Structures are given as C-alpha cells and as structure tokens.
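Q: I'm teaching a short session on how sequence maps to structure, and I want students to see two examples side by side rather than one. Could you give me a first protein with its sequence written out and its structure tokens following it? Keep the formatting plain so it prints cleanly on a handout.
A: Of course. Example one:
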Amino acid sequence: MLSHVPRSRMYVAAAVAAVVLVSVAVALVVRHSSGPADAGTDSTVAAAPSPTATPSEKESASASETEDETADESSEGNRALGLKAVATTAPGVTARLARIDSVQATASLPGEIGGPALAITVKVTNETGKKLDLALGVVNAYYGPERTPAVSVASDGEVPFPASVADGESAKGVYVFQIPVEARPVRVELDLGNGADVVVFKGRPQ
C-alpha cells in the first residue's frame, strides 16, 4: 500500500526545482553575453585606422601649389620680367623699357583722368635683316594686386611708335598712364603684333 505524501512537501520540492532552473538559465545568458563582447573589443583595437591628413590640410597644400605655379604670370601665360630687363619678342627683335618717369598728367580728352601718372618709354631694336613693321604695336599698363587696367592719357606727352624701323636701327615710343602712387608696383605689357610674343615687365618704378 502506497504511503501518502503531504501536499506541503510537494509544494516545497516544486519551488526548489523552479529556483534551480531559473539560476541555470541566468548563468547561461550571462556567459553567452560576456564571450562575444570580449571578442568585439579585441577586433576593434586591431582595426583602428592610422592617422591621415585632414581635408583642410589637403586643401591648404593644393592652394599653396596653385599659387606657386601661377605667380608672376600674365593672362597669356608669359612670365613677367623685371622693369630693367631686355626682352626678345621675335627672332632679331628686342625690347626694353628705356625710361619710366613719374609725371602729373593733365586730362584734355573725354574719358581721360588727370593726376599722378607714369610716362613709359619703350625702345625696340631691329636686327632681323629687314624692315620691322611697328604699326600694330600696343603698350598696356596695369597696377595693384588685382591688375587694374591703367587709363591711358594720350593727350599729355604720348608719342606712339613710328610705322616701322629699319634693320640695324632702334625706335622709341612714349606712353602715359594714370597710375596712383600708392597703387604701384606696375605691369607693362608690350605687343608688337605680326605674330611677335607678348612680353610683360613687372616691378616698382624708382
């Protein structure tokens, strides 16, 4: 005959079993979570990127290189010469700025501006073996960091090039430009035409 087990003992045993099961489940969850977390930490350290230049550093370097490459060049890409240099505009043809005089220009034609100006004397020498045509010769001047075009004061002392110059001879032209004293240095561009190179002189007149 089976003995009778009190209900109170059955309840106690069931409660103990439940506590054990819960403890085991918690232990498994904690162990599973701690393992991948450690592995993730190791992989992150190993994959840390090496230091690289910031975008601002790269942009600054590019800007410096661009400025160095374009310094002292005219809009046509010709490198500027000093104000006292002798330039070759074509085989057998040389040009230089023979004089640069500070003057006080007086405007007398519409569009001209009086005031501080420079009278620039350009000398061209012909050793080509034939007559050199100067009818298309043009002289322009610019001033300041933004290369502002200087206004020509043609009515006050300007003497253009002659129509031509014989072989072995030199010719001069005087060109007057209104240029503020505080706006110098200046740029002088000479184009003799007929396929000759445009030459650029740059500097601060004495």
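Q: Perfect. Now a second example for contrast.
A: Example two:
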Amino acid sequence: MILEAQHINKYFLEPEKHQVLKNISLSISEGELVSVFGESGSGKSTLLYILSTLDMDFEGVLKIHNQDIKDLTSSSLTDFRNKHIGFVYQFHYLLPEFDVLQNVMLPAMKLSEKNKEEIKKDALILLEEVGMKDFAKRPSYQLSGGQQQRVAIARALINDPSLIVADEPTGNLDQKNSELIFELLKGITGSRNKAVVMATHNPKIYLNSHRSIEMIDGFIRL
C-alpha cells in the first residue's frame, strides 16, 4: 500500500467556518491510477493537496509508505515529500530560463542523493520515455503545451517517487494531447509500478482509469 487516508476532515475558516472534506477514507496501491472527479467545489483539489502533504491543516490520519505524515517535523516532511511524491499540475510550471533537461534535473539536484552526471543520465532516460529526448537542449518556453506537460511528467519522476499526484494535468490541453498525457500517466503505473492519483473533469479519463472516485459536496462515492 502506497497511501492510506483515514477519516480526513477539512475546514475552511473564511468567510466563515465550513467543512469542505467530510470523513474521507481511501487507499491507493502500487500500479494503480485513481481518478478523482466531481463538480467544481466538490473538494477534489483540496483532497489532492492533503494527499500530497502540501496541506497539513486537517483532521484524520494520512500514511504514505506506512509513515504517519503528522509525525514528521517540517524539515523531515519536506525531504519525505521530495523523495516520495511527484507532482503534475494543470500548468506545467517549467522554468523558462532553463532548457528541458535542466528543468527535469532540478528536483534531483535539490534532493542531492546523486551526482550531477547520474542525474543527467536519469533525466535523459525519462525524456526518452515521454518522447522528449530530442528536445533536451531546447528552452522550455519554445515547447507546445502538450510537450511542456510531457516534460513536467519526466520532472515528476526524476526522484523515482512511488506516488504521483496530478491536479487536472490535461485541463489546458486539446483532446489529442489530453489522451497522450493520460496514457503516459497510466503507463508509468505499469512500467514503473507507480501509484497515480489525479483530479479530472474529463469523462474519458475517469472512465478509463483503474479506479474512479466521485466527490460530491465533500464526500466521496467509491
């Protein structure tokens, strides 16, 4: 089991206190792509922020690799997140001043568990896997939206995390590129035995995921 959440509750305090996640319990295993879908305001993104450890202000238990996340100090949590969780967002967040290869290498350079040449080798392998190796030296701002998102997936994988959290990763893409990004994310659950949890509005994605979770007014319907 990669991730286990038990009785997660989340409140927003402004403009007045209200509950946005209500007794959420779920688990995600290796080799599984789980889609979270529902109307805007149903709590999808809020849930993903908690599952990715970016929001720690919640009630309940969150375990990743059987590690209770709330037992970690702030610095330990940052290290844990960098090592075990990869992120893919609706917007790619590539740095325009760096080329494609440098963007992919950045999280591993920050983690500092390998030397620069080892990281470069890993990055080139990942770029080949997502079909972007020929663009390694191209400035990131010269890429199309679909190409940028493929690079973002390679970047998310550079530290070999077991969990990939993707928040609407196809939201800004056309149908062809949306299908390509989905197939890449689904493929890495098999080829790299990762767990992927992603928020989406796209029926083609949640109907073709290994498992789908519908959110309605802060609750989940499995």
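Q: What should students look for in example two?
A: Point them to this: The mean pLDDT is 93. Also worth mentioning: Residues 175-191 form the longest helix (17 residues).
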